[in-house]
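Q: Is it fine to ask for two folds in a single conversation?
A: Yes, each is treated on its own. Send the first.
Q: Here.
A: Result:
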Amino acid sequence: MFKQVTRIVVLLAVLPAATSQEAGDLPVSEEPATNDAVEKTEEAVEAPPPKAPAAPSKAPAPPAKAAPKATPPPAPPAPPVTPPVNPAVAAARRLEEDAQQQKDTLNRDFLDACRKFDATKIEDLLRQGANIDDASQSGPRWSALAEAAVHGRTDTALYLLTKKASPDVEDNRGRTPLFHAVRYNHGNVVTEMLKTAKNLGSSDGDGVDMLTRAVWQEQTAIAQALLTAGAQSAAASKAAKNSKIPEIRKMFGFSETVPAPAATPSAATPSPPSPPTLFAGA
C-alpha cells in the first residue's frame, strides 16, 4: 500500500508539469517522463536514511573467575548408641559397687587399727568382715602383717599371726611378710611365720632371696631356721662359703675354718752386683 501511495504522489507531482508544457508555459522536454523516473523516485522515497557508523565497541572484559567452593566441614561422628540397660543388671551392679566400697572402708579401718595396735577394734572389724590379708590400702601393697614387720611392730605381727594372718602375701615387688621379717631381723616373728609359711623362696625386686639375705646379714639363727624349714638357694650357699661366721659356713657344709688366701709368689730378689776387681800393676 505504501508503494501505491508513493506512486500517486509522484504522479501528482508530474501532472502539473505536463499540463504547463501543453499550454506552452514551459519548454517541451524531448523525452517524456517514463516509469523509470517514477521508480527511481519511489526508491529514493523508500530508501531509509543512512545509519550512523557504530561506535567502536570496547574489548570484552575477561570473565570473572569463580570463587572456589568452600569445602563443607565434615559432619560430626554420630554419638555411640548406648544399649538400653537392664534395670535388674543395673541394680545388681550398684549393689556390687556398694559392697566393694563397704569392704574397702572396712579394710582401710582395719589397717589403721593395726597401726595403732587397737586389739579391740581389730577384732570388731574382723567380725564385720575385714580381710586380714588385704593389701589394697597400702601404697607398696603391704598387708597389715607385712607393714608390722617392716616397721618393727613385733607385738602387732605376733598378734596378727594368732588371727591367722598369712606370711605369704606378696607386695608390689614380690616380697612377703616373712621376707620383711628376715630382712629386719625379727627372729621370733620369723619362727612363728615359718609354722605356716609356704613360700620359702621369696625375693626382692633385685632377685635377692631371704636365705641369701640372712647369710649376708650374718643372721645365724634365722639362716638356720630357714634351712630347717626347707629353704634352698645357690646364691646363699655361695655367700656362705665366703662367710667369716664359722656357724654359717658349717650349716652349709663348709669347713668352719676360713681358708687363708693363697699367697702370691714373690719375685726372686736379685743379688747385689760384685765390686769391681783391682788389678795390681795396672
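Q: Second one now.
A: Result:
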Amino acid sequence: MSEDAQAPALDFSPDTDVVPRRRARKVIYSPSDLTVAEKTALIDLVQAGVDVRAGERVAVTRADFDNLMSLVFGNDWNTSIEISNLANFPPRGFEGETIQVGTFSRTQHEPRSAEETPLERREGAPVFLYIKPRFTRQDFWFSFVDAAKKKVSERYVDLRPGATLTDLKAELIQHLDDRESERVRSFNSASLLIIGRRRIARFARVGTFNPPNVLARDLPKRLVRVTRTQEHIAAIGDSYKNEAKFESGEEVETEEEEEEVPVEPLAKLIVSEEL
C-alpha cells in the first residue's frame, strides 16, 4: 500500500465487550471496560506501531488492536497502578560485537613472554570476528580476536568449513542489524505500552460524560524505525564530513527539507494540552 493510501479505520460499533458509559475515576481493568469511542481513540497507536514496524503505511486489523490491548493490560495492569515514565531511546553501540567464525589452527604463543599461553589462544580455542566502524570512511574495520577480544593473526585461524571471509563479514553485519531490529522493537513496544496506559488512565480519571481526548504528550511521536548498520555508518560519516567542511569554511551541501505534513489519525482525536 502506498504511503498516501488511507487504511480503513476499525469499527468497534458491533462490539459487545464494551460499556455504554462509565463514571469518573472508576478503575479500568480490561478492554471490556472501555467504550466504543475510547477504543476508537486508541486506533492511532495501533496504526503507528504497525506502520513503523512495516516501514510504510499499512491497514490495521482487529488482531493488531487486540495485540496492543494484550500488551497494555499485561501483568494484570489496571488504572489504579502507577505508570512508569517514557524512556529515551539509547544511542546505538557497535564496538565489542563479535561472532564466532572458526578456531585456532595452532597455539599462538606470546613472543618473548614468560607467561603461559592462555587457554583462549591455544589450538582449538574459538576465534571471533570483531567489527569496529570507521565513520569518516563510512566503512568498517574487521579483526580476528580471541575470547578475551585480543587480536589474533589470520595465519592462526581455521575458518568454519565452507565459509569465506566475505560471507562472515556479511554475517556479522546481519547480526548487528538483527540486534538493532530487536532493540528498536523492544523500545517501540515499551513506548506503546506506556502511552496506551497513560491514555486509558486518563479515560478512567475523566469518565465518559465528554468525548475521549488525549494529551499531546501521549501521541506516538517517539517511535523509532530500524536503521540498518550501513545506513547508520553512512549518516554519521556524512555528518563528520559536513562538520569538517563547516570548520574549514567550505560550503556544506544540505538536502532541502521536505515540508512536514501531519498524518491524520484514523480516528479523529481530540488532543488536549491540559493535564
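Q: Anything structural to flag on that second result?
A: Two points. The radius of gyration is 26 Å. The CA atoms of residues 71 and 83 lie 14 Å apart.
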